[in-house]
């Protein structure tokens, strides 16, 4: 008998049958259940391809004590291999000395992961975050949502943790990078729920994401890094096309020859300063549109059929795409938040921006998602800052349409499609009743008052407005076509319960700060563009991955400080 550790992929556990995961693994391997000493989940996903037989799909590791002849036979089966744990790749440390500590601009996922990696290996980074510390920021944002009192220095876009702190906390990415596992482990160590290590669509939730951000910050500081909140780099000191330091908002200078620019996609004043300095940048495509809200039960039933509400499935999400006949425009869902809410995400006075978020439990009873349409430099111009002006134009239109008090323009889906007077009441009532029933079913111990919800969920409130007045005509037209097409996938998507709130403009950065193969700016040595704000990521996980790789590039060049 030989003890062996195997990796077994594609173990399907039907929700209709009463078999355990261990029994299903034993069946696939053709051995008795008691021959398996330990089964550990590597990956878990919902398999909803057949609505009448939804199941869970697992990749696992198995420890088994088996005869060698049986082991050889098992290893010949599809999806079975010997398990060899991945080993973290040790960094290559450079030989060049650093004259000053490296500086990171921005404490979002890219900046925090870059800082953590540098700090772990003795580089003593300094993180500059223009917004406030987390507890102050949460208070400021909550006050804005309650009262409409906006603070341009502390909001959903700026502050400790970055824009992702007020989001769904999704950690999905299309990037296939072996480093992801190490980053997820760091997140769990910092306070994220452990299931993000195995879930196909890992999700932290706004509430638990805040604890994770605090944990990451504490670890950076424990390893010798420094974090300065309410500290903004207002100018970049450059000599002979090489960075020499930063001018800070308190009037002091900070000498450094190495800056990771992880400023986020809303640092428009930083973009402007860099453009004036001649830093290489280019306009890029992004997308704008609205947020749509539906009863979560509608989405659950469309995706899971009779299995909707099954405790092992949780809430359903969706990913929808529509291409116009000429292929020029695409309408698609983005940042879908099951069981969440629509939030006010402005970062400038006089503008309305919407986004979506959800808590860890995803139990609001309301599903929301951005519905957006692609826009390109052909629409707004090739100047690197033209996309910013384009975003600002529609944010300001939304602000005026909402009443100049940060209320957002909103309209029922059917009113939007039919081009009739903007209405909300029927959809509001439908959505509110559905949300209450949904939450009561899941929390019968709580009374109705504790679960009351104002809909649309955007705070500080909405105003019925024709959304065509705050969007480009080609965006409105494409959204109308897309919504009707999406109803083929999710019956009721264009029905009476849907509400649209605008405008969603911050889907990604409207420009890219160009960098070379060494991750440095192609025009200014020592400047390392990084993350979503510089055009190299699109979400928490891809930004974190980019921060990791930029940090490793610096480590490869320089020795620890």
Number of strand elements: 23
On the 0-100 scale, what is the average pLDDT?
A: 94
Poorly predicted regions are 447-454
Helical coverage, percent range = 25-40%
Secondary-structure class:
alpha+beta
Assess the beta-strand content as a share of residues.
15-25%
Q: How many structural domains can be distinguished in the coordinates?
A: 3
Q: What is the CATH H-level superfamily of the largest domain?
A: FAD/NAD(P)-binding domain
Number of helices: 14
Indicate the CATH topology of the largest domain: FAD/NAD(P)-binding domain
- In this structure, how is the largest beta sheet organized? 7 strands, mixed
Shape: globular
**Which CATH architecture of the largest domain is right?**
3-Layer(bba) Sandwich
Q: In whole angstroms, how far apart are the ends? A: 52 Å
Strands of the largest sheet, in order across it?
Answer: 14-15-18-13-21-19-20
Q: What's the alpha carbon Rg, rounded to whole Å?
A: 25 Å
Which CATH class of the largest domain applies here? Answer: Alpha Beta
GO molecular function: oxidoreductase activity
Domain FAD-dependent protein C-terminal: 285-422, 445-507
Pfam families: FAD-depend_C, Pyr_redox_2
InterPro entries: FAD-binding_protein (IPR028348), FAD-depend_C (IPR049516), FAD/NAD-bd_sf (IPR036188), FAD/NAD-binding_dom (IPR023753)
């Amino acid at each position: 008998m030989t003890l062996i550790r195997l990796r077994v992929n594609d173990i399907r556990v039907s929700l209709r049958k009463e078999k355990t995961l261990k029994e299903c693994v034993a069946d696939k391997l053709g051995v008795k259940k008691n021959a398996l000493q330990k089964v550990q989940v590597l990956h878990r996903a919902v398999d909803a391809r057949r609505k009448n037989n939804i199941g869970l799909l697992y990749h696992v590791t198995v420890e088994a004590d088996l005869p060698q002849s049986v082991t050889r036979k098992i290893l010949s089966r599809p999806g079975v291999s010997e398990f060899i744990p991945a080993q973290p790749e040790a960094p290559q440390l450079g030989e060049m000395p650093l004259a000053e500590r490296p500086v990171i601009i921005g404490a979002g996922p890219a900046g925090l992961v870059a800082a953590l990696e540098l700090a772990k290996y003795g580089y003593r980074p300094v993180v500059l975050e223009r917004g406030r510390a987390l507890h102050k920021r949460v208070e400021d944002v909550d006050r804005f949502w309650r009262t409409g009192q906006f603070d341009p220095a502390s909001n959903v876009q700026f502050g400790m943790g970055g824009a992702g702190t007020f989001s769904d906390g999704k950690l999905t990415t299309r990037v296939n990078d072996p480093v992801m596992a190490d980053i997820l482990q760091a997140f769990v160590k910092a306070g994220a729920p452990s299931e993000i290590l195995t879930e196909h669509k890992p999700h932290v939730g706004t509430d638990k994401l805040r604890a994770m951000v605090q944990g990451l910050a504490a670890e950076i500081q424990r390893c010798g890094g420094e974090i300065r909140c309410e500290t903004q780099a207002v100018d970049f000191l450059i000599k002979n096309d090489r960075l020499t330091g930063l001018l800070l908002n308190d009037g002091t200078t900070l000498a450094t020859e190495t800056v990771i620019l992880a400023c986020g996609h809303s640092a428009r004043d930083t973009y402007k300063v860099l453009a004036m300095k001649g830093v290489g940048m280019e306009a890029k495509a992004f997308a704008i549109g609205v947020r749509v809200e539906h009863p979560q039960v509608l989405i659950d039933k469309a995706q899971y059929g009779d299995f909707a509400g099954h405790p092992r499935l949780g809430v359903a999400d969706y990913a929808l795409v529509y291409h116009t006949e000429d292929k020029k425009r695409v309408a698609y869902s983005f940042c879908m938040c099951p069981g969440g809410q629509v939030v006010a995400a402005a970062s400038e006075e006089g503008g309305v921006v919407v986004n979506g978020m959800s808590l860890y439990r995803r139990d609001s009873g309301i599903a929301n998602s951005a519905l957006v349409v692609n826009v390109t430099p052909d629409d707004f111009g090739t100047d690197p800052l033209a996309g910013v002006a384009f975003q600002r134009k529609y944010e300001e239109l939304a602000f005026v349409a909402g009443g100049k008090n940060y209320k957002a323009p909103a309209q029922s889906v059917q009113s939007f499609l039919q081009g009739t007077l903007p209405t909300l009441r029927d959809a509001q009532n439908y959505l509110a009743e559905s949300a209450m029933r949904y939450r009561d079913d899941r929390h019968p111990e709580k009374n109705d008052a504790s679960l009351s919800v104002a809909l649309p969920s955007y705070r500080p409130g909405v105003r019925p407005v024709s959304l065509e007045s705050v969007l480009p005509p080609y965006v409105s037209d494409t959204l109308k076509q897309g919504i009707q097409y999406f109803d083929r996938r999710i019956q009721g998507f264009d029905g009476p319960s849907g509400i649209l709130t605008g405008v969603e403009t911050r889907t990604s950065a409207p420009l890219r700060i160009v960098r070379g193969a060494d991750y440095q700016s192609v025009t200014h040595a020592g400047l390392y563009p990084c993350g979503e704000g510089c055009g190299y990521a699109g979400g928490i996980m891809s930004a974190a991955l980019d921060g990791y790789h930029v940090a490793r590039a610096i480590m490869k060049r320089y020795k620890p400080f």
